[in-house]
Write a structure and sequence with these properties.
The protein is of the alpha/beta class and 318 residues long. The chain has 3 domains: 118 residues, 3-Layer(aba) Sandwich (Rossmann fold); 63 residues, no CATH class; 106 residues, Aspartate Aminotransferase, domain 1 (Alpha-Beta Complex), CATH 3.90.1150. It has 12 helices and 10 strands. The chain has a 6-stranded parallel beta sheet with strand order 3-2-1-4-5-6, with helices on both faces. Helix 1 links the parallel strand 1 and strand 2.
């Protein structure tokens, strides 16, 4: 798949010849293509002839068809922009690739991961590129934020939170958005997920334990957690339990020296009596937490040191 920012390699002064499928969502692309010096709009297509006529009149562009096949078979089209209901994306993308067309597809690209491998392989085999039209990172506030980040104004990136709030009443007017086959999660979540991946592109799959947690990823420690090697090696967890706030630190359970240091340091840092189990430190309310001490605890062991301690304890138990 091509990510935003990648370009097709074109001959100098060559204009990409575009066909657009789906004239509801595709209206904005139609408008942009007609104004662009890099694109030549050749044909538009929709099953709704009234909508075709409306767009033809609106943009003074008479070249429309009701048959997708006309667009697929046209030798005058290099790229097909797909703006149909989500459930049709996979079949429309596949047809375009099989007819040697590059593809721009609105998000979500597909709503069923079972189709992903087939389409990616087809793209590789045909040599035709797929670009997902995810536009959020090109909005001006996002561009300015990214510019500040790359200039170092925001500082070191530790965590990313992304939200998606929108008034979807206009979208509910589309009949297919109310069908059982429509998946809101794919349509809405794609925006914040794309922004997270923009800042944290190298995502590793981890196991969540019902809390926010930090683990050593398989890329660093392929053996994983001995209880289930498919899970990464857990290290620190933070959870809001029913009657207390819990901080879990596996090093306290495995390293007696670290436990001794923490016990003594906690007595100096907090007037509250230390309440903890083997690896769980419990606090009744946020005001009871000695945050600087917890931060120091988190920095006491590096990932490599934790791996060495873990393997030593594991070997001893065996």
């Amino acid at each position: 798949m091509k990510r935003p920012g990648h370009r097709l390699e074109l001959k100098s002064n060559y204009m990409l010849r575009l066909g657009i499928l789906g004239l509801g969502e595709g209206r904005s692309t139609m408008s942009a293509a007609l104004e662009s010096p890099q694109w030549e709009l050749k044909m538009i297509c929709d099953l709704n002839e009234t909508l075709c006529r409306q767009r033809a009149e609106e943009f003074a562009f008479p070249h429309y068809t009701l048959r997708y096949e006309d667009m697929l078979e046209s030798p005058d089209i290099d790229v097909i922009g797909i703006y149909t209901p989500d459930k049709f994306h996979a079949r429309h993308v596949e047809a375009a690739l099989l007819h040697n067309k590059h593809v721009v597809c609105t998000k979500p690209f597909i709503d069923d991961l079972a189709e992903a491998d087939k389409l990616m392989e087809l793209s590789r085999r045909t040599g035709k590129k797929i670009f997902v039209g995810q536009s959020s990172r090109f909005f001006e506030p996002m561009r300015r934020q990214r510019k500040d980040y790359e200039a170092g104004l925001i500082g070191e990136l530790i965590t990313v939170e992304a939200y998606y709030h929108a008034d979807h009443r206009w979208f509910l007017a589309k009949g297919w958005s109310l069908e059982n086959s429509f998946k809101w999660l794919y349509g809405g979540l794609s925006h914040p997920v794309d922004l997270v991946r923009w800042y944290l592109p190298d995502i590793a799959e981890v196991m969540g334990y019902g809390m926010m947690g930090y683990a050593v990823p398989h890329s660093r420690y392929p053996a994983g957690y001995h209880c289930n090697p498919k899970d990464p090696l857990p290290f620190i967890g933070i959870a809001s339990q029913k009657h207390f706030i819990a901080v879990y630190h596996m090093g306290l359970y495995a390293d007696p020296g670290l436990l001794k240091w923490f016990t003594a340091a906690h007595a100096k840092a907090s007037p509250k009596k230390l309440d903890m189990g083997k690896s769980c430190i419990r606090y009744k309310k946020p005001g009871d937490i000695p945050f600087e001490l917890i931060g120091e605890l988190a920095s006491k062991i590096t990932p490599d040191e934790w791996i060495a301690i873990y393997e030593k304890v594991l070997k001893r138990k065996k």
